[in-house]
Each structure stands twice: as C-alpha cells, then as structure tokens.
Amino acid sequence: MPGTCRDRRRCLDHLWFDVTHHGERYRMPVNDFAVPRMAAGQQRPVESLEEARDWERRFIGEIKGGRDPRVSPMPKVEPLHAEHVAGFLDAYFERYLEPAGIRSLNSAAGRIKALKGHFGDLPIKALEDPDIVNGFKTRSEYAHRVKIATLHKALAILRAAIRWGQAQTPPLIDKSPFHRFGVRLNKKAETTRDRRVSRAEEKRLLDAALTMNTWQHSYVGPLLHDRLIGALELCCRLGEMLLIQNKRVDWDTHTIGIPGETTKDRENRRIPFDPDGRLAAILHRRGALGPEAYVFGTEAGERIASFKSSWESLLMLANGYDCKRAKAGARVDRAKLRQIDLQLARPPPRGRLSAPGRRGGHPDDPADAGARERQQTQRYLNVTDEELRRGLEISWKRRTLRAVGGGTNA
Question: Which of 95, 232, 268, 342 pairs as cysteine with 260 (C-beta 3.0–4.6 A)?
Fold first, then answer.
C-alpha cells in the first residue's frame, strides 16, 4: 500500500495467491495464509519473494490434498502433563468447559472445586478405582453437606471429565469407574423427596411472607408473597420465572410465554394461567409497570437474579423459628433449614414445591390432587393452546367453587 512501507524490498503485503484447481478458484493474500501456519511465537509477515514461493508450494499442496487453504488451521494444543487429579480437572475446565461456553459455567466451577478438595492430591489413575470414587459419594464431607441431586451433578462432572481424559492422545485414563459394577448414580433417589405441600403449609408460607413487610426485612413481604404465588401457580424453573416480563403475558389466550433463550432445554413454551385466579391479579397489577418490566422483579420492575436470603427468612418464620443472623450477610441457622428441608424448584408433573415425604396430592384434598396432576401433565404434552386451556378450566372452576365455600389465601 503506498505510503505505508519504507522498505519496498520487504513490503510484500500486496502479494496474493491465485490458483485454479478442478474449476474452483482459490485466491487469498500471502500473509493471510502463511502467518496462521507459522510456529507459535514466531509469527510475522512474509519478508521475501523466495519465502512467498515456499508458501505457495504449501498453498498448492493443501489444495491438492483436498483441504481449503482459505480456512485457518486449528491451533495446536500442547499435550497435557498433569500428574494429579487437581491439574487434570483444571485442564478439563480450561480446555473443554470454558471453550464450550456452557451457561452453567460457574456452577461447574463450584463442583470441580468440590471434586478437587476430595481427589486433588491423588494421581489421575486413582480415578479408575470405583471404591475411591464411591468414597466421595458416600463418605465425603461434601456428600453429607449437599442434597443427593447436587452430589449427582458433581459426579456427572467427574464422569464427563474422565471421558474427556480417555479421549486425549495419549489417553490420561484407561477405564472409567462409572459402570454397572462400579459407581452408579441412583437417579430415583432424587425424586423420592417430591410431594405437594399441604394447604396448611402453603398458607403458613403466604402468611409469613406478609409479616415481612417491615424495615427489618427491607419491606420485601408483598414481593415475596407474589413470587411464592408465582412459583405455586406456574410450576416452572425458578430462573425462568424470574425472567418473565410483562410483554410475555398474553391476555387473549391467558398464557405466559417462556422464550427458549431462558430455558434449560432451549425450547419455547407457553404456560396457561387462570384468568380469574390469584396469579392473574398479580399480572394485572404488575402490568402497570410497562412491557419491559419483570413480573417477579423489584418493586420498580427491575430484574433480580435470586431471593435466597429472603426465602430462608421466610422458611424460618413460617415454621416458628427466629430468623436473626449472627452478622450482616450471614445465613440463618443452617441446622434449622435442613430440618425444614423445603426449597423452591421446578417440580415434576405431580408436584409443586419440593419437600421431603411421599409423592402425590394434597393429603387434605384428594380430589384436587387428581385435577392438578392432570393440569401439570398437560403442560408437558404436545397439545394446542386452546385444547390445553379447555382442559385446565376444569381445575380452575373446581378451585373457584372451593374458594367460595372456604376461602383461600390470595
């Protein structure tokens, strides 16, 4: 380019390769081809015609070899030299999970930290022994501290890392301990805890939420009450619920749109709601904040990522415990929380809130349990919005009649 090169002899940016092979033309600048193929740390522009001719021969060789030279080669990955599990797991995270751009990268990092805390100093080959891995599953401090579903997620990360290690050249691990006679993940144990909360328990939670409309709780009571009703009525994942905006509420079909970009399975869904129910009252009220406002966000409609602190306080109050914290920012009594053992989660078709005990309907309302079970099951079927709405009207009307007779907390 004129005016940009002081040494015309070494100014070769204007050179292009131009080769036609089997009727297809391959044309690109010399440096665009040569520089990415130079050794790491030695990349520089081509400096002579002789060097350009050498690269031209390689350019033609790639074409004849069936490769498109216009596509930059993948960078060479240095072989992994990890002797212990800690380095192996770090490499798996840096070389596989981070480039994959998974949405739950922070969660994966936390589980890998737990795995390193237990296995970190062991040689990589120790992971081939099922007894060692089962020791983490049954006897580790992490296993006693978390719920079984969380433990299984950490073991799933370990299983995926081992498979990645087996695929390396040369393999870092020869065999996996995850097999029929080795380490097994009992998925059924994750769902034995699911049941509906009783009407009495639901009322205690809602009443306790309203008592939190004080300065000690940052006047979060009414918002927490709305979020709890949202969790009870929508039966979607908590993260999906917190991302619902007013513009997703369709009052013509009485459905709420859940865009695929916010869901775990990346699929769009529409959740019906009762136009005369308690959730509809919340949607009407929050709709005044504008289409971009978040239904279950702040008082002004701004998005929140979590309300874990207020939820823990609610659990303590609803069960008659003191929710004071030892210091600002600390958690409430962890032993009491484990005793209560209730969490907000997306339930299976038979449940709403996740809590210990048997699965099934409300113990004090068997008829309603069947209606709600059909309601939840229909949400996972491939039916039209109109068919689903007509089916749900049965349970909505039944609930309305019962509310007239005895009243509900709305």
Answer: 268
